[in-house]
Amino acid sequence: MKSHILALYxxxxxxxxxxxxxxxxxxxxxxxxxxxxxxxIEHPELSEKLGKRPVYVQLFTLxxxxxxxxxxxxxxxxxxxxxxxQIRGGRPVVPIPPDMVLTYEFFILSGVxxxxxxxxxxxxxxxxxxPLYNTRVSEDKIGILVKAESSAIPFLHEVFKKHHSLEILxxxx
Amino acid sequence: xxxxxxIKNWTSFRARRPYLDQYKNADYKWAMVIDLDACTGxxxxxxxxxxxxxxxxxxxxxxxxxxxxxxxxxxxxxxxxESVPVDMVPDKGAxxxxxxxxxxxxxxxxxxxxxxxxxxxxxxxxxxxYNRCVGSRYCSANCxxxxxxFNWWQYADFAWPNPLELQLNPDVSVRSKGVMEKCTFCVQxxxxxxxxxxxxxxxxxxxxxxxxxxxxxxxxxxxxxxxANPQSQVAKVWxxxxxxxxxxxxxxxxxxxxYRIFEEFRTYPSVVYLERVRDLEA
Amino acid sequence: xxTEKKMGVDRRDFLKVLGISGAAATLAGCGNTSIESxxxxxxxxxxxxxFVVPGNSVFYASTCTQCPSHCGVMGRVxxxxxxxxxGNPNSTISKGKICGLGQASVQIQYNPDRLxxxxxxxxxxxxxxxWDQAMTVIKQGLxxxxxxxxxxxxxxxxxxxxxxxxxINNFLNNFNSNNHIAYDALSNHVGETVRENVYGYxxxxxxxxxxxxxxxxxxxxxxxxxxxxxxxxxxAHFRKAPRGTLVQIEPRMTLTGGNADxxxxxRPGTEGIFALGLANALVQHPExxxxxxxxxxxxxxxxxxxxxxxxxxxxxxxxxxxxxxxxERTPTLILSGATAEGQKQGYQNAYAIELLNVILGxxxxxxxxxxxxxxxxxxxxxxxxxxxxxxxxxxxxxxxxACLIMGVNPIYTEPTFxxxxxxxxxxxxxxxxxxxxxxxxxxxxxxxxLLSPVEDFGTxxxxxxxxxxxxxxxxxxxxxxxxxxxxxxxxxxxLLKERDPKNYSHYPDYYSYIxxxxxxxxPVFKSSMTDDDFWDSTLMNGVxxxxxxxxxxxxxxxxxxxxxxxxxxxxxxxxxxxFVPSIKADLRDGRHANLPWLQESPDPMTTVVWxxxxxxxxxxxxxxxxxxxxxxxxxxxxxxxxxxxxLFPGIQPNTVSIPFGQGHTSYGRYATNRGVNPFKLINPIxxxxxxxxxxxxxxxxxxxxxxxxxxxKDEGPTTLQQGRKLVVTMAADKAELSKEV
Amino acid sequence: MSQxxxxxxxxxxxxxxxxxxxxxxxxxxxxxSWARINKDVLRSLDRPRPIFWVxxxxxxxxxxxxxxxxxYQYDNGLGVADLNNPQVWGLYIATFIxxxxxxxxxxxxxxxxxxxxxxxxxxxxxYAEAMTTFSLLTAALFVLIHLGRxxxxxxxxxxxxxxxxxxxxxxxxVWDATAIGTYLTSSLLFLYTGMxxxxxxxxxxxxxxxxxxxxxxxxGWQGTDRQWxxxxxxxxxxxxxxxxxxxxxxxxxxxxxxVSQNPGWHITSFPPYFVAGALYSGCAVIITLFILLRYVxxxxxxxxxxxxxxxxxxxFAIAMVWNYLNLIEYSTVWYGDNMIAxxxxxxxxxxxxxxxxxxxxFCSTVMPFTLLIRFVRTHLPTxxxxxxxxxxxxxxxxxxxxTPTFGHSQYPWTWTSGWWPSWVQFGIVAGSFxxxxxxxxxYCKIFPTISMYEVKEMVHDQGKMLKAKxxx
Amino acid sequence: xxxxxxxxxxxxxxLIVASFSINAEPxxxxxALGTQTIxxxxxxxxxxxxxIEFPHYIHAKIMKINCMYCHTYARRSAVSGIPRxxxxxxxxxxxxxxxxxxxxxxxFWYWDxxxxxxxxxxxxxxxxxxxxxxxxxxRFYFQDKRPxxxxxxxxxxxxxxxxxxxxxxxxxxxWCIDCHKKDHQISAVNLKTTNGPHDCWMCxx
Lengths: 173, 282, 741, 472, 205
Prior knowledge:
The complex is a heteropentamer of chains A (173), B (282), C (741), D (472) and E (205). Helix content of chain B is 21%, strand content 12%. Chain B has 282 residues and is an alpha+beta fold.
């Protein structure tokens, strides 16, 4: 039975110390993978302490930029070819430069769209907020959310408290 | 709509018109010759065009704003240069030029139409499909001859007060507001005679069909016909005047009068003008 | 016309308009119509001719009545509507071609302002009435018991010919009268009189096709001339190899002048002097020396180069140059035209010009006798300005009891000083027969709505008969559009039948009258057809043609007294400008101003539409600081008009011009209150010899009113090609026309 | 830590230099609390200065008039706009280019400056990005307004239909439509993605209906480390896409002209010229809006004078680029041997449309030099006027690209002189400004115009640097 | 209006999907209205009330009269035309036994009053579309020698099974194009194929 616990901190330094300690802690039913930091701004130095957490957005981007121009060009060219009248004075039915222009736009459009799709998937959004969310996180506080076996919760509680946490929230039972 | 089609016919999709001998084996290529030495500027052709093609009379106020709908206009110039002295006497007469759609083989208007309302027909006409037109007016902007006319108003509402509308040619659409229109080489006549010829299992004979302007012209300054038929009068004149459809610069004898307007823009017009002749010693 | 039914009556039946719904459908154009069932009606013919196929057009031959040249035309008819007119290839006059004026006839037919019911005067205004009511009024004056005779009845028309003329004369004869007055504001009576006196024919054939050099003194044969379509077809041949040269001498550039190889502006009224100058120089050549008697030669000596140059305003060297060409290029043809003839010395001017033809030996070569018409009673009446003066005299004597007016609008075209309006009002019975109310009809007591030219029967003989004699047959191209319109012939026949039942009661209508008359002429054409076939084939051809029978111009008389004299008119301080109004090829004397196509058709020389304008030389304009569009007041001693200035290089520096045709006060929506009427400026100057009005001899002054309005024209701010190579000109000696196909 | 100190030494120099020229008290307070940032920005959604409503309703009125004009034009045909045969486009297309161009500097500020990590963009990029989106919306409107048959506009859209007809993909107008569509989609997504953390803040502070809206829009953002890292990658990738896209969009708009054969249009340098012009007009508008928003929403603490100063420098630089390209354009025509184009250029400068040309020269070439005057740079009302003049000059530039060319084309017969648009055209153009302002003001009232999280980052980073310096 | 257009667009989209999967088949006589040709474009029009309820099935099916006996213009004009009134009378004068039937009475009423019958248009194309009957009849009836009921029926349905005619096909542009894209054998003997013109100016001018 796993449950959540969230602690709020005033600034990054304090949160960093907590994470350092958690990193060194070996506790049954607790893993560093289950630690989530919630913060009002980005925090690369804190994230480093959480270990490697890969981001897959650019894979989507790659997919987008590969598929976009191919489908775009095929669509445009075959639409031109199947246009019921095909003769256009001075230009071939399938002209290269205009199709390149359109392909380019398709390239960017599909790149952008796939990136955003990838982002949403990465965010796991739209989704429900976890019940352990404190609006102060979006203002100026750093939150550390840990998911662990219920047995580990009191210990974590202690650790948080040790580092002068402002507030500790646990799941209500 | 298939990739297969695209690959199979790739070479034909990449062909550009005009090319050498393009109309050698084709059935039709409609073309025109206008002899400027014979043209007197009398406006018979323009009135015939109004009658044949349901052109609206726009009235003075709209004419003033530049909303005139004459598909064919007779231009009158006083000189060739860029400025003229005030005391010039036009002692060589005026220069008249009937100007209508040149039915370019590589028409600048066709390329830019966003919806393909103007395109090229197999018989060499620069078409304008009214019911496809959305009225972006790009074609007119890109036409070097400025021979495309836009329906700025719903002319049908006032140009033919009853019973004037009884004169309207039922073979030609009355255009609604917001569409572009232009000279069609009287396509309704062409298609009718082509249909009849097809029923008879032959091609249209030279002189069997002609445009309203050519038919009216009292001096027969306008010759219309099928360039693909080497026996036609038009083809003979083109050949005689050493004009090749697919060339943008003609190499011809000095004493030949044929020329096409704005050839340097590579529009490959289908209308050959014959130079005006003046007895400069008179 | 394959059937043997009673033509005409049944023809009218099958021509019934049933395409109305079709026409309305065309109007809708390309909106976003969806497919609907049962929304529109589709009606079939009840009993049509076999050749009538819906969706296919039928062409009927007829004759154009828009101007006195009476070209043969063909009407394209579909679903009972005439859609378009084309030239009739059978016609020797039109040769299958047609001008803009002719095209516009269909707009008389469909004119929205057409008169559709008779109108009868009620106090100050005309009110719609039935035919019975209108005929009752007419019969009160001209009915069975009428005793009006002789000068008491007037039939005023324009130029008429064919059976219209015959019927009018018969009608008048019935009243013991021959008071048929033919009035034409723009008549060419002066020139005709001169040619009648010189050659014996008022309209000899002028073979411009055969000439190598044409010198035209203001003769606008391509534009507003006697037979512009025919002349244009001949002009096309004239320009083919070997190419002829055209020199035009006139104060204001006409359409013909615009096509000349060389155009000379000349001081108005001095054309004759210039011709004498040419004649004087011409006889220096030994060959031409012989051609004229010594007394003439002596008279000519006064006109040396310098004097002529001073009087005419043309560089004296031009005479040497022109004469040089005349020596070299034969045959030549010298033409006199409206601006030369419409002068105080108009007769003399034209005489001097014809003298050149005589000296050059053109008579018999480029000027030949016309073929004689075997039906002289059908020849056109000689319409003159003098007729109007005559009429006015008759009217002011208050003898006239009934006045019938058809095809002419004297109230609009009369100069101010004639004042016919006042006198006409006093006539007890004034009947106008019109297709549309005009200024004159508004004054009348009864106005009868006539059939339009494309609905009526008739026969026409043109004034100018270049190749044999052509009698144009007019036939209805469609069923009459307005049920309460009638043929003028039917009106006259109704009256005649009542007065002279013996001779006329067997004509059910005007159609049968024409038909009988045409069939009667069968022997002349040596036709072996039956009467019905002859009539059918005549209708099918549209013309009856009498082939060319050359007759020689016998003696050419030259009367020294008829040569013009150089007049040194004192410079007029009050009216310093010559006023040379121009005749537009389409509006003519204003009778066509109600046709929208013609109003919107740009004037070829100025490209102005829908309006009047004052042409003024750019140099003069610069001196007077006049810009284009400045509203000018043009004032003669007779009155003044205001119009916008148009800077026109093709006009004499001390001349201004306003076109005829506009300035109607009542002629439908397209003509009314548009531009100004230059007839109202004309001074009371007449040709000394014939009494014809000198249209081009008025002097005016111009004043700026201070206003400036944009002039409505087709051309843009530039009149030059700006080096674009749009119209390229090649020197005639460089072009090898003979090598062309 | 020590590494960071070494790194910061050059920055320190920069700060020193900046201190020398710009009074420090005007810049963003480094010690400002994050809660304060939230409060200040959220206040703008709540109670702006009363002038906001004045501007909003003025814009609404203008927009309503534009709608009336468009209705009138729709009912009667384009004739009411006094367009005519050679002058087929008139103000509609000129204004279309103007609006398209205006969008570009939004992308410049948000994307380009993001890529090169220019921190000062952070308080101002959000409204610039919003401006991009709304000006693109306005531009798209003009495409429709100028169509003769608006009701058939879907013919331009490529969709499989039973008629077997497609749009003509060779037409620059179709490229336009595609490019604008791409640009609009991308910048909308870019704007939205960048706004999600801020929307979450709004959500956390709002009540009632607004809360629902923000809850919906913020998609449940919690600010977790995974979300932030995904966000960072996404945002940077989008910025990388947006830069070339923006360049391509206005290049493609320029091909509407450069591809056609008209004199004065058929010029190779048109694409860069258009892009420079676009950035130029966009920057001018950003200055205008900067001053406006700073006052209306009381953003003095965030939209500070040093930032404005940087904007002005950027505007000046771009103005010079534009001038250079302008000169290039004219000199290539002048020294080229195309007689027709040369005639047209001469006519542009001396013909009936010369006032437009010289007006443009004054507004867009001469006026930017006033930005060199310190008074102009620091006195906001004056700066506002100058930026409006620059904008007007750029609008004139678009007019003088279109009108004189049509008025003096290859074909002399159809030349026009003294052509003047009717009140309907002016009404619609004015209406478009009303529409844009209305939308923009509405946006500012509903969404946070200053990126809160990024300002926090900015003060955090700078505070960190200061701290590091103190340690050193 | 706009909404209508949007709906129109979507219906077209649906149509195209449908048309991809269906191949046109030759004409089949009989069957339910609108199913005589299976081409995916069935669109039964409304029942139009005509002044005289003309029984096509008697004339065409029972009497086996060729369509072009009455619609005689179809082979020489763009419009097929409604038969002229004297054509009806010409036959019916000779058939006194049906003279008393109400429809025939009505017919003779029009004839006696010399009035044309105000028929209502069943197959109505937009005004910018110009269909040419002559070419189609010449091509398929005279050249290909196909049965007339099939040639006419492809567009008009199996009129021989109707009383008054009723529209059974969509008569939309896609439907026209669909047929024009197909390969048609040049003649019964010549096995080569051609297809209809794709020139816009054939129908729109």
